[in-house]
Write a structure and sequence with these properties.
CATH architecture of the largest domain: 3-Layer(aba) Sandwich
Largest sheet: 9 strands, mixed
Radius of gyration: 24 Å
Number of strands: 20
Number of helices: 10
Mean pLDDT: 93
Helix content: 10-25%
Number of domains: 2
Shape: globular
CATH class of the largest domain: Alpha Beta
CATH superfamily of the largest domain: Alpha/Beta hydrolase fold, catalytic domain
């Protein structure tokens, strides 16, 4: 009886603290439309399965950028209600619905946001700026310069790992401006193995090794600090220290900007490419069987490494960041993370930024990717808006490319990414066929 009472109390407590839900559906299941075609958005707002009677603010925008139209809707008059909109050129029409409720005992109202998006001929979306004429030559020149001025100084240190089928190492490599760090796992059984490479999403980075069955695995962080922190500090401490610049909080990706030789990712890109060139020469590696997968920042690095290193047999990029930095030039749509041109250091130095930011644009690296690649896009992604992902996808040189639309997904992962990772691994490490029965 006590157990049933506790369960009931827990359910009542959950109901009491349930948040309002803003449900947005479109008249087309795939959320895809032709330019000029009207998209019908149906909005329903509820709490504890009860329809609300508040007022909500609605905004149609160009994928979270330029506002197209806005209106206040009274839920007491209609809930659900419908709104219509369209675009006359390729892009994404985003509807943002905001509910503000006065909470008892607090001076500020609580805010609930719902998002829906319609894609208008997204396979025709182009990047906001062209590729610099010397783009690939400049990067190859930077790699050559690093080889002349900065010895690789590869370091490999064994680390404890629970999976007894693998040997695990912390690795690091020198690059102009500092080092790059990561983790390497190698099967204990002697042999030559295919390779899975990844770069983590934005944040502190990987702090421990990761194993992939039957493969060598290399995970490289973008940060210049040792991920196995010194005594008394955690990786989060090191990350917080990194994000402090001249006594102010400045997140790492903006460090050094807009100087293209000093921008934070200059060291990271060169260092990680050098780590791959080192790895492919190891006697336990099959250099012709290497794949890559990553999400967000890691997805952006899939474009960067795919175009600059150029030796992967398969790439999977989930909601890739660092793409189409000049998307705002295309009618005012919101650019992808880290939105360089929306940051003070870049916008104030506009001319210098125009000369540097394109060299760090995943879309320009994508133009040099020829291997099979799979891309996952979230239609309601605030961090890496779908128009920027599509602009990058459309720039890919690969003849074997596919994009998977997750119409109700924001900046996250899901089954589509899991399937893409599995696909990439199996390209270089096909599953063994069962032996025929005798």
């Amino acid at each position: 009886m006590l157990k049933k009472t506790l369960i009931l109390c827990a359910c009542l407590a959950m109901a009491a603290f349930a948040k309002p839900v803003i449900k947005i559906t479109l008249d087309k299941e795939d959320h895809l439309y032709k330019c000029g075609e009207q998209a019908v958005f149906t909005v329903e707002v509820s709490e504890n399965d009860q329809k609300l009677t508040d007022k909500v603010e609605t905004v149609f925008s160009l994928d979270g950028g330029k506002t197209i139209k806005k209106a206040t809707m009274d839920l007491a008059e209609a809930n659900p209600f419908t709104l219509q909109g369209t675009l006359d050129k390729p892009g994404f029409l985003r509807l943002t619905v905001t509910l503000r409720q006065k909470a008892e005992g607090t001076p500020k109202p609580t805010t609930t946001i719902g998002i829906g998006a319609a894609g208008y001929e997204p396979l025709k979306i182009q990047t906001g700026a062209p590729e610099p004429a010397d783009f690939l030559a400049w990067w190859k020149g930077e790699l050559a310069k690093a080889d002349k001025t900065t010895p690789l100084d590869a370091k490999q240190e064994p680390v404890e790992f629970k999976n007894k089928g693998f040997k695990a190492y912390k690795v690091s490599f020198a690059a102009p401006g500092g080092r790059v760090y990561g983790f390497l796992t190698v099967p204990v059984k002697p042999g030559k193995y295919p390779v899975a490479v990844s770069v983590p999403g934005a944040g502190p980075g990987a702090s421990m090794p990761n194993a992939v069955g039957g493969m060598v695995s290399l995970t490289m962080n973008v940060h210049p600090y040792d991920p196995i922190a010194p005594e008394g500090k955690t990786i989060k401490d090191l990350y917080n220290d990194l994000n402090t610049l001249d006594g102010k909080r400045v997140i790492y990706m903006y460090h050094g900007g807009p100087d293209k030789e000093k921008l934070f990712y200059h060291r990271a890109i060169i260092g990680i490419v050098r780590s791959l060139l080192w790895l492919e020469k190891q006697d336990y590696v099959q250099p012709d069987k290497m794949c890559y997968y990553g999400s967000s920042q890691g997805g952006g690095f899939g474009m960067i490494l795919g175009g600059l290193y150029g030796k992967f047999q398969a790439i999977a990029c989930n909601v890739p960041a660092m793409c189409d930095h000049y998307g705002a030039l295309d009618g005012g749509r919101r650019p992808g993370w880290p939105q360089y041109m929306m940051q003070t250091a870049f916008s104030k130095a506009a001319e210098a930024s125009k000369a540097s930011v394109p060299y760090y644009d995943g879309a320009n690296f994508a133009r040099h990717i020829t291997c099979p690649i799979r891309v996952i896009v979230g239609f309601i992604d605030n961090t890496c808006p779908p128009s920027c992902v599509y602009a990058t996808y459309n720039a890919l040189a690969s003849k074997d490319k596919q994009i998977f639309n997750c119409v109700d997904m924001g900046h996250s992962g899901g089954p589509a990414y899991n399937e893409a990772v599995k696909w990439a691994r199996e390209i270089v490490n096909p599953p063994k066929k069962p032996a025929p029965k005798k």
